[in-house]
Amino acid sequence: MATLTEVAHALVSDRRGVLAADESISTMSSRLEGVGVAPTDENRRTYRELIVTTPGLVDSISGIILADDTLRQRLSDGRAFPDALADFGILAGIKVDTGAKPLAGAEGEKVTEGLDGLRERVAEYVSMGASFAKWRAVISIGNGLPSARAVRANVHGLARYAGLCQEGGLVPIVEPEVLMDGDHSLAQCQHVTRVVLRALFDELALMQVKLDEMVLKPNMVVAGKDCPDQPEVDDAAQTTVDTLRETVPSGVPGIAFLSGGQSPELATRHLGAMQNCGSLPWELTYSFGRALVGPALETWRGDDDRWEAAQKVLSGRAVANAAAR
Ligand code: 5MM
């Protein structure tokens, strides 16, 4: 059986990345409805089957993050999702947070919940074949945000989660996402990302989380979606790498970015540009959700006749990101 360090390295090595298919039931339902598909358990299952059975995915995808409902579902051939992933040579991951909820006393800010009962859930997920986990915290920029208490509460949750996962036998993917919502500048995103990552690694150290047994999943440093002054790809890439060099210890095996609402093409271009920013102490890879699966979902639209076309589109995005690495 692989050690947690080996799993962490396997997730980020060989030019491969992690696919995030762990949309909560409510998010997945609205994505399905957005393409005219009824948001039923069976349609969520079918869509996830389309993703994981995409031919050749193993060449560019090291692991797939699943949601709790998918982990308990089966492919049409009867195999449980984690077992099928193992057959394909892909590691199974599980989203273990229970979502971002309003933070008391902090208007407009959220704290991610899910620590209650997590030790027991980790044990169950390990018994079902999961190798790694994910927990996402969200930080907003704007109107005096983020507050110090939102940053503190969120990094505390991430560090407690990471410790419980390592204790129970899962590699934690630690995801502090500084959101793209708003008109903030590249410099503001850099400042907030730096503050959050510094606070995060302080808290991880306090909780004695082992850096070589985790993967960091941060936002890229980009300007807010509504900022009129959008940086060039090379600027955003260099600023992201500079920020990570300042804040992320070299003991972390790899950094796997979220896409955060960037177009699939732009996320890939940023990833590619970062590979030219000098030698780095960690692997830099992708753990995109929308930027990997969005175009495939748009292609499929619930139509069986478009199944293969949708898989080709997903495969194309995955190969493009592996090539960008
Ligand atoms: C796939 O979406 C994940 C779960 O989101 P919800 O719980 O809100 O449904 C999400 O955490 C995702 O893994 C990351 O945000 C990365 O996805 P993007 O689309 O930003 O690359």
UniProtKB/TrEMBL annotation:
Superkingdom in the source lineage: Bacteria
SUPFAM superfamilies assigned: Aldolase
Known EC number: 4.1.2.13
Key words of the record: Glycolysis, Lyase
EC supergroup of this enzyme: lyase
Pathway: Carbohydrate degradation; glycolysis; D-glyceraldehyde 3-phosphate and glycerone phosphate from D-glucose: step 4/4
Molecular functions per Gene Ontology: fructose-bisphosphate aldolase activity
InterPro entries: Aldolase_TIM (IPR013785), FBA_I (IPR000741)
Any GO BP: glycolytic process
Reactions it catalyzes: beta-D-fructose 1,6-bisphosphate = D-glyceraldehyde 3-phosphate + dihydroxyacetone phosphate
NCBIfam families, sorted: FrucBisAld_I
Family, as annotated: Belongs to the class I fructose-bisphosphate aldolase family.
Protein name: Probable fructose-bisphosphate aldolase class 1
Originating species: Saccharopolyspora dendranthemae
